[in-house]
Amino acid sequence: MIEKARAAQKAFESYDQAGVDAIVKAIAKVVYDNAEELARDAVGETTMGVYEDKVAKNKGKSKVIWNNLKDKKSVGIIDRDEKEGLVFVAKPKGVIGAVTPTTNPVVTPMCNAMFALKGRNAIIIAPHPRAKKVSNKTVQMMSDAIEKIGGPANLIQCIVEPSIPLTSDLMGAVDVLIATGGPAMVTAAYSSGRPSFGVGAGNVQVIIDRNINYQEAAAKVIAGRKFDNGIICSGEQSIIAPVEEFDNIIDAFKAEGAHYIEDQADVEKFRSVLFEDGHIAKDAVGQSVEIIAKMAGVEIAENSKIIILRSDDTDGDLLRKEKMCPVMVAFKYDKFEDGVEIAKQNLLIEGAGHSTAIHSNNKENIDYAGVTLPVSRLVVNAPSSTTAGGSLINGFAPTTTLGCGSWGNNSISENLDYKHLINVSRIGFVQDKEVPTDEQIWS
User: Fold this and answer.
1) Are residues 336 and 257 in the same domain?
2) What CA–CA distance (Å, rounded) separates 214 from 209?
3) Count of domains for the chain
4) Same domain, 86 and 164
5) pLDDT at 187
6) I want to staple 103 with a disulfide (CB 3.0 to 4.6 A). Which of 183, 206, 231, 416 is the partner?
7) Are residues 393 and 417 in the same domain?
8) d(C-alpha 224, C-alpha 206), whole Å
9) Active-site residue set
10) Could you tell me if 353 and 285 lie in one domain?
């Protein structure tokens, strides 16, 4: 596979920008056009998530990423800085290896392939074993789309029968790695000796400010939390609300379809089924509200969209960690700064470097949260789950790989983009500048 990838990449390196973009568009469009079939396959194979949401994700990610990439230069001279006398030249990195998760078996291979091919690289996908069929199918569809427009064969390949040894071999043989998965996989990528881009754990805190429309905020939070049964890393996890408005805010969430549980005996039942040995229980990941409630042995209202659990424990409660299902935990704060501190402490337990959402009309409070919290993204007045990874209505780079900086043991604190998968040569010219004296420099 490596030999085939290197041959394909060498042929692809001679393509101009139009030729590159035609191929990138083709692989996005084939996922968009087959969104329903691939969503059905993903749910069937992984038994996680929601079919309708996966359709929306397949269509949404393919079009928003292509919309972001189509006008970007990635071949040859991509920029000139006349003031500084610099010319920037984009060049490929070679063969990219990408480890992809069971939670996003279609859009993550597609996204990584789009970024890799935008830079005239080749890519080999190592899918999660629980999603190998749908990931391979996705890659085959993309490869066929490239072939139809006369592109090189083997630009995108996928390991048919993934295993730890094969993934390790891949990590040691490629030029650059993208690891989208659990901490162990990311650590292995960084230990491979190859330049690597990984992700950190998600645990998105939601800060509800005073003097806002609580109904609108509740609707956005619930939309984010329930999307694809909560398996997205940027999905909302905790509600942090002002103490004097807490009941009103919970009422707003109830009106939007949340089932609120305050009784600590019932809360403990959920805690015991959601976590195993301090980590999210695999049987709970991506499951519906009804299944989670049944696992806990607690009756909930019919047609509930999410479950909210009340917790007064701000020290070591497992519920403060990431819950990859439609369950949230609620906290109260006095001063706004106290709410930010609760969010920060929760992030330091798990999820540092990832994202936080805030619903606020107070610019000073928004700035304070952005300055104070150890996150790479602060989502303002929007569902974090569907916008932190980039959207048509914000400036985050559209992606499925959200870097978490040094907080999350990652090399980038932004959304992975095509620019991370190109080398840039700089041509530097001597400038007609007045050279400052030592006295001027040190004054």
Assistant:
1) yes
2) 9
3) 2
4) yes
5) 76
6) 231
7) no
8) 11
9) 233
10) yes
CATH number at residue 96: 3.40.605.10
Q: Are residues 127 and 272 in the same domain?
A: no
Task: Name residue 416's beta-bridge partners.
Answer: none
d(CA 203, CA 347): 7
Long-range contacts of residues 279-284, Cβ cutoff 8 Å, at least 24 apart: 280/321, 280/322, 280/323, 280/324, 284/323, 284/324, 284/325
Q: What is the CB neighbour count within 10 angstroms for residue 95?
A: 24
Q: Are 97 and 171 in contact (CB under 8 A)?
A: yes
Sequence length of the chain is 443
In a domain, 443, yes or no: no
Name the nearest CA neighbour of 240 among 357, 353, 350, 348.
357
Q: Are residues 209 and 304 in the same domain?
A: yes
- From first to last of its 443 residues, the chain has per-residue pLDDT tens of 999 999 999 999 999 999 999 999 999 999 999 999 999 999 999 999 999 999 999 999 999 999 999 999 999 999 999 999 999 999 999 999 999 999 999 999 999 999 999 999 999 999 999 999 999 999 999 999 999 999 999 999 999 999 989 999 999 999 999 988 777 777 777 778 888 898 889 999 999 999 999 999 999 999 999 999 999 999 999 999 999 999 999 999 999 999 999 999 999 999 999 999 989 999 999 999 999 999 999 999 999 999 999 987 766 789 999 999 999 999 999 999 999 999 999 999 999 999 999 999 999 999 999 999 999 999 999 999 999 999 999 999 999 999 999 999 899 999 999 999 999 999 999 999 899 999 999 99
Q: What is the pTM of this model?
A: 0.94
Residue 129 lies in a domain: yes
Q: Backbone dihedral region of 219: left (phi > 0), alpha (psi from -120 to 50 degrees) or beta?
A: alpha
Domain range for 276? 204-397
The CATH number given to whatever domain includes residue 389 is 3.40.309.10
Spatial contact of 245 and 212, defined as CB atoms under 8 Å apart: no
Are 137 and 212 members of one domain? no
* Closest to 250 (Cα-Cα) out of 228, 221, 271, 273: 221
**One-letter amino acid of 302:** E
Confirm if 307 and 292 have CB atoms less than 8 A apart. yes
